[in-house]
Amino acid sequence: MGVPSSRIYVAGEWVEPAEGHYPVVNPATEEVIGEAPEASAAQAEQAAAAARAAFSGWASASQAHRAEVLGRIADLLTKYNDDLVPLVQAETGATMRVASTMQVPVAVERFQRYARHAMDSPLVPLPPQAIEATPLAKGGVVGAVARRAPVGVVACITPYNFPLVNLAGKVAPALAMGNTVVIKPAPQDPLQVLRFVEIAHEAGVPAGVVNVVTGSSPATGAALVASPEVDMVSFTGSTAVGRRIGEVAGRDLKRQLMELGGKGAAIVLEDADLDTAAAGIGSTWAFHSGQICTAPTRVLVHRSRHDQLVEKLVAYAGFCKVGDPLEPTTVVGPLISAAQRDRVESLVAEGVAAGATLACGGERPELERGFYAAPTLLTGVTTDMTVAQEEFFGPVVVVLTFDGDDEAVALANSTPFGLYDYVFSADTGRAYRLASRLRSGNVGLNTVARNHETPFGGFKHSGVGRDCGVFALHAYSELQSVVWPG
Q1: pTM above 0.85?
Q2: Catalytic pick from 293, 320, 360, 468?
Q3: CA distance 318 to 285
Q4: Which of the four, 52, 142, 199, 230, has the lowest number of CB atoms within 10 Å?
Q5: Cα separation, 259 vs 189, whole angstroms
Q6: Where do the Aldehyde dehydrogenase domain residues begin and end (predicted)?
């Protein structure tokens, strides 16, 4: 397919960006890999207007047609896999193992999934109800059905860690339900999103149904969120940005779907298999350099098992080779930017200054180029420390201790976040009962594996709403009740 477009995509046309271009940097090499369009706020408004103009036609299209278009997108993503993987890898800094197995293939699977779901009936049958006569209406048997209808124009604002996968998780169910979309990717890695839109165009998506605006400043996304043409904002990113989006979207009562920050608690009970627990917790280091909102970054271990678990975690970190993500033996690649690396280093230093102990890591890897951070383990952490409360979004794990289940639950629930927690125990019944006490949208019992049919989202400051599986169809639709006399 060649070099991704250097223009934005509005109403089925490639348009020159009003504000020029900005460089996209490979976080492993610090080299510029492309120039991304710098769209203006006015162009974001134009994209929203284009999506509005296309909405009626797409919403009234047959389910079979929408399913066919989504299926073609999946087929073309597969066709261009070998072209997409290197681009995804270069932009995100992901290891080739992650880029080739967890980025493009998962995006394909999501479009295939919602091509199937596009054929699901939008009707929810309801039992008839016998009602007494009232001054309002005659008595009798009244029938009813609930119908799922598209929300309208959806602004899809995607994160930098899994740009293509997250895009697929938003755009595919939104289109399946008959919505139109404007995509605003994270500024760090938008080239793969532009490449995706080229694929959507080739797949025959009607003009205006999919639009994309990119930019390095917040102005473009802010204009999109504030646009009166936008009915819903689907955002994945930090809680701080989510709050600002919520304030603006709330003024017009826009529908919101927010997947925000996490500070995943991994509760390790005294009867836990420590090898299983260490492998799960170690995924914070081994999977995309800890740039995952669901990572088990906050270990809560029973005091009697603390030393054993720390020993295993230090050993695990020692096997996590940091370096060039193109090398097959590399486990930990770079963070997305110098700013993010500096933030992680600053938080680690703050934790040490507050009294935490560096069990391993903490230093900057000795590499000539790239935004790398070493796998780091902080012990002796208490819940009042910043490192126990704030999300690192990097390869850092902190350890706290507890003496009983009640204390473990209190510690797990002691942060503003509640996205994904974990419980490790030989007694799955006990672990299940403990899970019900956690203020978290998701809980893994003796595993960090995901089930992608489950509703995904967070409690508290970790988000609003749920998606994944059929729940994404609910997220991108409104319910309309239709009632008639029997």
Answers
A1: yes
A2: 293
A3: 10
A4: 142
A5: 19
A6: 14-482
